[in-house]
Design a protein that fits this description.
With 180 residues, the protein is mainly beta. The chain is 11% helix and 42% strand. The protein has one helix and 14 strands. The strands form three sheets. Strands 3, 4, 6, 7, 9, 10, 11, 12, 13 and 14 form a ten-stranded antiparallel sheet that branches. Strands 1-2 form a two-stranded antiparallel sheet. Strand 10 and strand 11 form a beta hairpin. The protein is elongated, with a radius of gyration of 26 Å.
């Protein structure tokens, strides 16, 4: 009985091919039931997935606040909204001077679902006067602004407490949050 296969195997399929197919369909068939974006054809062993619209990147002009004569050049500020999720990236080159012991805040592109103290991203702060980079945590300070916290120290604190913005400094941020 050289070519005997179990009854569930089609003619021309080896038992190992059949097991692989059974394993694949075990995961693909439930996908069809759970979503209208996928269809599975067991007879032809194919699955077709519909693409989800991920939204296009849009630009915006974020605010930058710290008391003082703050001004900036927006090198990059863009975001994409996928459903209620907002993904964004911002690079700001500082051209003014802030006041020490005051938080640094950056405007968000879309009003957020939640208010204060939610970590939504991270980034880098380059301090030109000492040529150092600091790792940042981006946290919401309201539904429309995020504040920057120094994250590479044992006791994180608001950026700006001891670090006034100055010409030549760079803020490079990335964030993801839920829109209202």
């Amino acid at each position: 009985m050289a070519n005997w296969y179990p009854p569930t195997t089609r003619v021309g399929q080896s038992p190992s091919t059949r097991r692989t197919f059974d394993t694949l369909t075990k995961y693909l068939v439930p996908l069809q039931a759970a979503s209208d974006t996928a269809t599975t054809d067991i007879a032809t062993h194919t699955t077709t997935l519909a693409l989800i619209d991920t939204g296009a990147w849009s630009t915006y002009t974020p605010s930058l606040t710290q008391p003082g004569a703050i001004s900036k050049t927006v090198t990059l500020a863009r975001y994409a909204e996928v459903g209620k999720i907002v993904h964004g990236t911002v690079r700001l080159d500082v051209t003014g001077t802030g006041t020490t012991n005051n938080p640094i805040e950056v405007g968000l592109p879309v009003t957020g679902q939640t208010g204060t103290d939610h970590v939504i991203g991270g980034g880098l702060f380059y301090i030109a006067s000492v040529a150092l980079f600091y790792v940042l945590t981006v946290r919401t300070s309201s539904t429309t602004k995020a504040e920057l916290w120094q994250a590479d120290v044992p006791s994180p604190s608001q950026l700006g407490i001891g670090y006034p913005l100055a010409s030549g400094d760079i803020l490079d941020l990335h964030f993801t949050y839920e829109a209202a």
